[in-house]
Amino acid sequence: MALRRxxxxxxxxxxxxxxxxxLLLLISAIAGPxxxxxxxxxxxxxxxxxPPEWRxxxxxxxxxxxxxxxxxxxxxxxxxxxxxxxxxxxGGLDFLRMDEDSFSQPVEEPEAKPQGHILGTDNNGRDxxxxxxxxSRNALLPGLVxxxxxxxxxxxxxxxAGFYGGLPSALLGGFSGVVxxxxxxVLILVVISALAPNVYYIMxxxxxxxxxxISEHIASRVRSQAGSxxxxxxxxxxxxxxxxxxxxxxxxxxxxxxxIHFALVMAESILVETTLSYLQFGTKAPDVSWGNxxxxxxxxxFSGIYWITFFPAAAIVMAIxxxxxxxxxxxxxxxxxxxx
Length: 340
Prior knowledge:
This protein is mostly helical. The protein has helices at 2-8, 12-35, 55-61, 64-75, 128-164, 166-181, 184-194, 199-225, 229-236, 241-278, 290-296, 298-301, 307-339. The longest helix is centred in the C-terminal third of the chain and has 38 residues, at 241-278.
């Protein structure tokens, strides 16, 4: 009954759905390596481009042409043992560029034997489940850097500007105007050019570009509460401004904003990190990102073999929606409680 009542309240189902997705992502990032049979950099050369083991999933993610290409793979001489030399990324996928005449002779497809690759393997024989787990860690950790910068700078600025007004508020407005006038990706490219192309530097710049949005939101909330009766009573009780601002205004009245903005910044940082990794500006090999998994599957995707692209893309969507629903649900719950 308590869960049903919670779901019926504003934001309840969004908090539950988003929290479940985020919890699954956290479990994958923390305990995932103990749940997979393979390491993310382990190559099973006998199962290069092995499709998912579930037949219904294989039928969805492999087109008819993709099935023919998998048969052509066996004719192309892909190594079958760890002692053979692994073909390079171009030569090893020559069978993907075969013309239609290459498929003229029928080939009996042997019955696939389970190899423990539930979600299949990529074009290097790496287990897709292990790659997704490794990618979840590299999606969360850079996002935490962005949150640390965005909240660590934006929260104090918003509290001070909203509480005191005047010069602090004017300085915040000027800072926000400068940051918002600069395109985000231009700033990121400047950092990449000036420093080593490190994903954590990039996420720090992303966090800095999110400071105006967070600080302005917090400042507007604090500004509306600075003249409230509880602030006057606290001052008459002998409390200093720091105690009033941090304890009574922020923690008692607005602490939900911390969790709301944390969830929204995490969603945005995952989107930016995966996009930059796809463009080869973010996480680079041998580290694994959902973005560079998709980038490495561009040849197989257009050949009718979709699972290498589908699973990381689904993970990206789930992670972003999870944090977004969590933040949006917390915002709706906060507004509902204030209106009661």
